[in-house]
Fold this sequence. Notes:
330 residues, elongated, eight-stranded mixed beta sheet, 9 helices, homodimer, 20 strands
Amino acid sequence: MKLTSKNLSERTDTLYDAIIAGGGAGGLSAAIYLARYGLKCLVVEKGKGRSFWMQELRNYFGVDPTVPGRELQKHGMETALSWGADYLRAFVEDVTDRSDHLEVKVKVGKENSIYPVFKAKYLIAATGIIDILPKLENMQNVYDYAGFTLHVCMICDGFDMWDQKAILIVQKESQIEAAFVLSWFTPYITVLTHGLCEVSDAMKQKLKDHGYPLIETPIAQFLGENHHLQGVEFTDGTKIECTTGLINMGSIYHNHYLKGIPELTWEGENLVTDEFCQTTHPRIFAIGDLKKGVNQVSIAVADGTLAATKIWRIIRRSSSPRKWVEQLTA
Amino acid sequence: MKLTSKNLSERTDTLYDAIIAGGGAGGLSAAIYLARYGLKCLVVEKGKGRSFWMQELRNYFGVDPTVPGRELQKHGMETALSWGADYLRAFVEDVTDRSDHLEVKVKVGKENSIYPVFKAKYLIAATGIIDILPKLENMQNVYDYAGFTLHVCMICDGFDMWDQKAILIVQKESQIEAAFVLSWFTPYITVLTHGLCEVSDAMKQKLKDHGYPLIETPIAQFLGENHHLQGVEFTDGTKIECTTGLINMGSIYHNHYLKGIPELTWEGENLVTDEFCQTTHPRIFAIGDLKKGVNQVSIAVADGTLAATKIWRIIRRSSSPRKWVEQLTA
């Protein structure tokens, strides 16, 4: 059922089989599977994650390429609820290991917040990442293009940049390397640092050898209309033309609530997991963009399947098969 | 484009980047990704695989639980075609390793068949499995229930059997072990061997201890109406009541065309692969039910993503980044 600040006290005494931090594609897939295994689960979703921002999902088998991420999320939430999962709009604050179970403290409500604690045998960390966007004075100008013609994922949207004039926006020199991959889709690349980093002479030479201009002046605004990029204006008043772009400024990982668990193994900000997405803490699974691997909706959805299936196997194997005789005499 | 016996000669000189054997969920996911990476690919689909028979797909994030597999397949095929993939209705007969590429011989047409050969740098084996069904004189009687209330996958459909009177149909004693897993969903299990195997005294005792009746008489027919199972009649004229069931008689693997490739590593009939679904033959990938792992649509779809992405990386890294300068002076 859908939990709110009004009814959630009905569930704070429940020992959930699993709490899922994050209601994106991975978390909701896990919830659908857990619920259909007959396990008690709660999805905690803060809202506005990466899949919420996806305007179109071009690569996911079975779904029309024009369906936006937020619609898929809503559909998945309703499916999970219909099979018996619980769902709460809240922010996961902290996880405490109580040895035979985990305590998950969440923040409900932006104002007059309350901080209930839920209990679970297992946690599925599915809180993912969010892409860093260039900071402009008028952020609405960024949102008008980001996710439309100014992309954040080359695997998802490289195809839609084919042989177009493209910008590549970075904030570190190492991120410029993406230009030499993006060139698979288009060679007409201008690299923008937005004034955020120094670029070495070696990289400048490499860009020059490939014919990719480098502009280190900060961006003033994106130009275009109806989400269709037409160019960029810089703070010195100069302009360039472009019809598409890739933002490659890194990601913010939503993983703060796991940093107090010493048994976890990290590779950078990603969690290391086994083939069933189980971390090195036996009660914690990590799926989707939070774990090491390819950041794609299809992968997150499969991860949810795997984590839920492993949790079901562990719980099922710790109980005896139900007998027909017992049921009849009960 | 859609190939037929009339136009396929336009493609027999093409060196495809990848040929995908099998147009189920995994194969079509791979085709969608490959096409969007700008790679040339051909899907060869024989028709009527496992996902074609799925009446409802209850666990796949983003798709209504009532959507049948054949509708998803059609949708995926149209999406792949729209991004530029080729598609041919045919049966993969044989694969020959020509060292720098593979030759894939297919059979087109059930009558007056032709046997064209296509060439590809990589092969994605996505031909999956098909469930063995009990053989009755009137097979239509089996098809009337199989995939509706007589299931073939416990992970997919255990939830829909909850606490119902269920039959478990096996053809080997070892397959009876599924009863002690199925009991998670319902303890009211009757095991049917359809007269196909001997059952040891130890197993008989174990079933007795759990209160699960064992019937070794062959099935005469399934009883019920509108795909809703109501019972089973046996060849000796006896009947039992049941409202659901699980067929656990094993699977037929569509992998004959790979048996001549000595570099492949098998575990039973499954191919062993790495984390990108690459087999131990560097030009051959295996995805979905054909590879070792959990047999679920979500997994096959992710496998397609991984195999296609790895093939793109290999091909991309073997070519130099495109230069803007070259393009301008070309």
